What does this fold into?
Amino acid sequence: MPLPDTPLTIHGGCNCRAIRYEINIPALSVRPLHPFSHASVHIPFIAICHCNDCRRATGALTMAAICNPTEFVRISLLPRSSPLPPLGKTRVEPPNDDAEREWIPAQEVFQPSDVLKAPLDSFIASYKPSEGVTRTFCARCGTNVTYSRYPMPEGWPEMLDILMGTIDREDLENGQLRPERHVWWDKGIDWVKKLFSEGDEGMPKHPLARLTDTV
It folds into this structure.
C-alpha cells in the first residue's frame, strides 16, 4: 500500500537511541517520481528486498526499507563523550527524548560522497559491502540503520534507505507504513517467497516465548 498523499513524519533510530532520525515526507504533489517506474511511483516508497547482500547484511531473510531522498531526513547522533541513555529493557520501547536532542540535516552526514561525514565521537559506523554502497549501523548496540549508494544513477535524487525495523513502534502501528512492493524477487529464497505469496499454512503462533501457549 503506497504512503498516504498527505504530509507525514516518521520517527525511529537504533535500539539504544544513540542514533535517532526523523523522516519528513511532504505532500504527494511535491514528491519526486521514481525514475524507473514509468512515472507511476513516487519517492519515498517502501519495499521488501530479497537480494543476497541485504539478507546477509541484516541477518534477516528479507529486508524492508523506506527509500527516501536524503533531504527529507534529519538525524541526531549522541556523542560518545556525553551521558548516554541506559540500555533499555529487552523488547520494551524506551522513553522518547527527541525533544531534548540536537538535530542536523542527514545531508551533513550522508553527503554526495562515498565517505561518511559523521562526527568522530558518535556511535554511527559504516562499512562498504560493495563498490559505491555504504551501510551504517550503531557501534553501541549493533543496529543496522541505513543503506546508501553513490553515485546514484542518472535521474535519481541523493537517496537514503532506512531499515523499517528501526522505525518507532507507534509509527509502524498507525497503518500507513505497509510495504508496497517486493524488489530483487528473482534473487529471493523460494520458500521465503512462498510464505509471502501463499501464507504460512497455519504455522503455530505463540503470544510470547512459551511454546505451550498459542493464539
